Amino acid sequence: QVIEFARIRKIDSDYERTRRHRDILKAMLERLSVVPVLEYGRLAEDILPNVKTNLSALDALNIWATVKLFGDVEIEQRRFPADEAGGGQLINDIYYFVFDIPGTREAMGRYLYLDEE
After folding, report:
1. Is the dihedral of CA 40, 5, 71, 73 positive or negative?
2. 32 vs 59, 61, 96, CA distance in Å?
3. Whole-angstrom distance, CA of residue 38 vs CA of residue 96
4. What pLDDT, in 10s, does the model give residues 29-85?
5. In 3-state terms, what secondary structure has residue 77?
6. Residue 73 CB coordination number (10 Å)
7. How far apart are CA 97 and CA 17, in angstroms?
8. Calpha distance 104→86 (Å, rounded)
9. Considering the entire predicted model, what is its pTM?
10. 28 contacts: CB under 8 Å, gap ≥ 6
């Protein structure tokens, strides 16, 4: 059901679809935050075969264990490119979001490295 919910395309926009993805990931992380550390291995065996990532299972577990050491961590979300960076355009019968690549690259750099909104 979650996968079907995440993949809905016809009822709204791509922005809403990606928002659903973020909501699902946030809910999963909140749920994982109450799981005892001793159950991480079993969960990794269940979950990781369904995840495509460049992290090894051990790397993913180490990251999660480190995060858990710090207690409740608020996950900050930001989407690039921002809505105001571009707009929709129909190209060869396909709808694309065409955006300012150099401006988006600069905004990402400011956000990641200078901690600017």
Report:
1. positive
2. 16, 11, 35
3. 45
4. 777 778 887 887 788 788 778 878 888 878 877 877 777 777 666 667 788 998 889
5. coil
6. 11
7. 14
8. 10
9. 0.57
10. none
Residues in a beta bridge with 86: 99
- Residue type present at position 89: Q
Q: Which residues contact 82 (CB under 8 A, 6 or more apart)?
A: 104, 107
- Residue whose token pair is 């075969």: 49
**Rg of the chain's alpha carbons, rounded to an integer?**
18
Query: Comparing C-alpha atoms, which of 15, 22, 64, 18 is closest to residue 41?
Result: 64
Residue written as token pair 């961590």: 73
> From start to end of the chain, where are the E strands?
86-91, 94-99
